[in-house]
Amino acid sequence: MFKAEQLAHTLHQLIEQGVWKPHQKLPSLREQAQTSGYSLMTVLNAYQELEARGLVFAREKSGYYVADQNMQPTALDRIEDSTLQSNIQMNSFVFDYLKSIQPNDILPFGSAFPNTALLHQPKLLQIVAQHARRKQSYESTASMPPGLLTLQQIIARRYSLQGIATEPQDIVITSGCLDALNLSLQAVAQPGDYILLQQTIFYGAWQAAERLGLNVITLPEHPEYGFDLEKFEQCLQMYPIKVCWLMLNSHNPIGFSVSDDIKQKIAQLLARYKVYLIEDDVYQELYFGSKKPLSVKYFDQDHRVLHCSSFSKTLGAGFRVGWVHHRKLSNQIQHLQLMSTIAVSPLLQHALVDFLSTHHYEKHLRSLRLKLEHHKKLFYRYLKQHLPAECEVYYYPSGYFLWIKLPKHIDSTQLYQTLLQHRIGIAPSQLFTVNRQQQHFIRLNCSFEFTNQTQHALDLLIHSITSAKFDQSSTYSDKP
Ligand SMILES: Cc1ncc(COP(=O)(O)O)c(C=O)c1O
């Protein structure tokens, strides 16, 4: 091992001195053995040592590459103004899009859900099966709002552990996060009201605004901080905004998380202007590193924040179990729930209580975060290395999405349709914004293994971008 360490030390220096550049391929094991005079096994050990230090990474059947240590995200584009948008029409496009990527043979890079292989929890399924045999799982009063008390208790405890004093009755169990978000919005907004949305945001927010006939004020992203406090306050002064719907942790689709300082200031502004916030925190557990990010809810002394989340991104969207946290509006939300989705299957609620009471969930989360980080970095490095220089790949240390800026002349919806013909899904920016100037972005789900199939699909994506032509009639073509 001593020789391997020596070699690793020499190679480490080459990387530090910039002789070997980020994304550059290292000599093969055989070549390195020949030039250095060390055995193949020593070279392999040295490469693995460098990999463990995060200096190089291995790509299946290809070799070792120098890792890019600079994962600092580049600044986002500056978009000057907030806008007022009435008569939102997003639902039909989202519907057609989701249908189009549904078939099993479409590579799910356009999906909003993590690779199910990473979520699979045999222990949880075993518990579900045990409960499925119990009569109590079907007769439970948990089929009435606000849901199963023991599940409310567990969720409340998780909040309290993060410093958000919570009683079980503050929690309403819902059919996933989307149900929580929609019920929350209905509880505070009427048709014709003004809602503030981030300029680019999860399509569920646009659909909700469309369904309720709301006027939307869009808030452009801050190029560096993700959230623009100054513009936010200007919007609160200019428009009679009743409610905001924001994502501040692992934003979908862009990926950024906003600092605690900004979250605290958002809470202060909400209190000052008496505006509600629907905080979509569905990716709250998928942070990289050791510190779970706070939410605006943490700073919410004025009961302005309806905090919504679910188990969809950590245990599987199929469970359809989510919740909303708001002390004062809990009763109103339950009334609305009784008129729509009623409650979640008691069987699943019982099973979740048992599963969450064990150590399995925390263990699962730790391993999930590590795997997501690993996959995301591999996708990022490959794309950084092979995409044309005019493209930008935004990497943020959480979640499993990469947000990619394409050359401005490429319409991402047309690119998505082209790739669909090759059975590859990608999410075009038209799903997330109504701004016509922002149609050249795509969101890529990177929660999958970096296999040969993955690489082939990314190569096709890269080829389609590289060879995109834009003719006079504005039609996209991927033909060279
Ligand atoms: C940002 C965001 N919020 C909410 C949801 C809905 O989550 P659920 O499946 O728990 O309803 C999703 C799902 O894609 C999402 O990406």
Automatic annotation (TrEMBL):
Which Gene Ontology molecular function entries are recorded, alphabetically?
DNA binding; DNA-binding transcription factor activity; pyridoxal phosphate binding
The protein's matches in CDD domains, at most eight in alphabetical order, are given as: AAT_like, WHTH_GntR
Q: Sorted alphabetically, which InterPro entries does this protein's record hold?
A: Aminotransferase_I/II_large, HTH_trans_reg/aminotransferase, PyrdxlP-dep_Trfase, PyrdxlP-dep_Trfase_major, PyrdxlP-dep_Trfase_small, Tscrpt_reg_HTH_GntR, WH-like_DNA-bd_sf, WH_DNA-bd_sf
Q: Does the keyword DNA-binding apply?
A: yes
Looking up Pfam families in the UniProt record yields: Aminotran_1_2, GntR
PROSITE patterns in the record, alphabetically?
A: HTH_GNTR (PS50949)
> Where is the HTH gntR-type domain positioned along the sequence?
1-69
Q: Which domain of life is it from?
A: Bacteria
Swiss-Prot/TrEMBL keywords = DNA-binding, Pyridoxal phosphate, Transcription, Transcription regulation
Q: Which family does it belong to?
A: In the C-terminal section; belongs to the class-I pyridoxal-phosphate-dependent aminotransferase family.
**Name of the protein:** Transcriptional regulator
Report the source organism.
Acinetobacter populi
**What taxonomic ancestry is recorded?**
Bacteria, Pseudomonadati, Pseudomonadota, Gammaproteobacteria, Moraxellales
